[in-house]
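DM from R.C. (forwarded with permission)

"hey, sorry to bug you on a friday — could you get me a structure for this? deadline for the figure draft is monday and I only need the backbone to look sensible"
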Amino acid sequence: MRDLLEKIRHNYQLILRGIVAIISIAAIVFIFPSEVKFKYEFQKAKPWLHDNLIAPFDFPIFKAELELQEDLQKAEKSVSVYYRVKPEIKEKNLNQFEVLFSEKWNDEIAKKSKSYFNNKTFSLGLNKDTIKNLNFKTGIGVLTKIYEKGIYAQDEIFQGKEETFEFNLIDENTAKKVTLSELNNLQQAHIEALNLLKTNLQVNNEFVISIIDNCLEPNLNYDKSFTENLIAQAKEQVSETRGVVLKNEKIIDRGQVVTDELFQKLESLRREYEGKKVGIEQVYLVRLGEVFLVGLVVIVLLIFITIFRKDVINVNNRLGFIFLVFTLTVYMAAISFYFPQININVLPFCILPILIRAFFDERLATFTYTLAIILIGFFAPNSFEFVFIQLITGTLVVLYLVSIRKRSQLLSASFVIFGVYSLSYLGFAIIQEGDWQKIEYMNIAWYAGSAILVMLVYPLIFLFEKAFGFLSDITLMELSDTNHPLLKGLATQAPGTFQHSLQVANLAEAACDNVGGDSMLIRVGALYHDIGKSKNPQFFIENQISGQNPHDELSPKESAKIIINHVIDGVEMAKKQNLPEILIDFIRTHHGTSLTRYFYNTLKNDIGEEKINKKDFTYPGPLPFSKETAILMMADSVEAASRSLPKYDEETINNLVENIINNQAAENQFINADITFKELSKIKQLFKKMLQNIYHIRIAYPK
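My reply, with the result:
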């Protein structure tokens, strides 16, 4: 048991990688469809590349999507809309007319002159009561006729329709065909009321029409539910198929071009084949096949990371992040399979390579994306077309975003994505259809939606940064701002150190570009590596202006402690400001476990080496453990030492660089860093050249 536990302890990392891989495989296989997969790939206007195909069973020929939609539209147009008479509207407004007439009649009499009305008789020999009844009955009659004819509202159904437009009108339980010309809208109802009133000279038309106008409203109501039910019934009558292929009937020969008709036969066979119910035993076999395929993809990804990105394979959170994003991308694709109303082309698959590129390199981003798209091909219709378009687009986006340092780059990347998507799709559509009118331009709209959704990657970068402790180029750019409290404090309190940090940043960044590494990361790390000196700036020579050195009043041991503490102080200051751990590592390691040699040698000369405790003069470390931290150590030491040279010429600078870096290597300061002798040689040459340029070395003129 003890031996087993010991083996587990020694192989902890390997076991953990296996667990991550197994979880990823299980999660992906879980979401995969359990149906049998059609084994043939085919494209419109392309030759059939397989053997002669014979129908294995009877199956119907399904209509193409465009054809089916056209038939459904015809069915919808064949159904006439239905309106329903609302008798309550008529009754309500007839009562309204009576009320308004009674209220306003006396006012109307008062307005008229005595020549029009007298106490007993009207000008035509009728008394007031008689004329009142005449006006009332006439108005009621006109209003009744108008409502019996019908008033329709100018809604969207009638917009732009001719007078001959025909529809159904339901009055109680009776339906009849009517045209717009047989009915009135509100304006037409007013005109008809005026015309009817003109036929009776004894009626006060002006007064009656004013009352009628207040009692007019549409009494024909669009029966939406009834109409839509009829439309639904009509659509249900539309057949999804047009013909049948019988068992053992030849479908297509090898090399034969896939025409529209043959394409529909093949699509129908695929649909029937994949839609057939399978037994439990067959389901298990399908799942086993999926485990094999998904497992191979995951293993290939693991091997790639192991060989080319050892820094990822050895850090659990990095490996976990890659497999998490990889798995979530496959799950995103599954949305379109289980929810067919969501078009797969609108899903932002390019988020995967952008996310991985934000924290790692282009090669890892491209490779991971390629494997994910291959798996997603299982969900995608026209899988070859889908895989081709996605791979081309994703690869170009990765190449375009060599570094993500500005938010605007993500916006421009979305335009690149849309452009590549559209051109790729149009290329396939032209080949397959050979007709501009048959191209489904709606797919371009889906691609536009995908390009817009890619912009979600920005908050995702921030989220994963916090969750996994990563550092993106965008955050590095923000941290490189000299207005950051730590850098601003360093520039104010220790200006000499600040200038030193800027020079170290230039040297380190150039070296990283030369030998390969994260140049942006090392630049920002260099800016912060000496922030601890701002606590006691006067104890560091670059900040001493007056010429007075406070170390003259201290013992070598005390001086060494203050110098060493700038690393400890820097780490504490960085943590208080929530600086990312990867930047704090530059502060911890930039002196490694080297000696404060000046003070050590001073004391050694006084009391002898055997009486000195080296720990009192040794930086706490740790040693640099990456290429970037090792380069920073070299750049820091070389830049600082160059300021103390008695003269600046090619020889002195060459000797300085060689001695410092060789001594660091001899003291095993780079033993934990992934850096080679060849790279050390390149770095030396670069430092020499840059220092010569900094100090403007010129050739000596002849005397």
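R.C.: lifesaver. The first helix runs from residue 2 to 10.
me: no worries. The CA atoms of residues 542 and 586 lie 20 Å apart.
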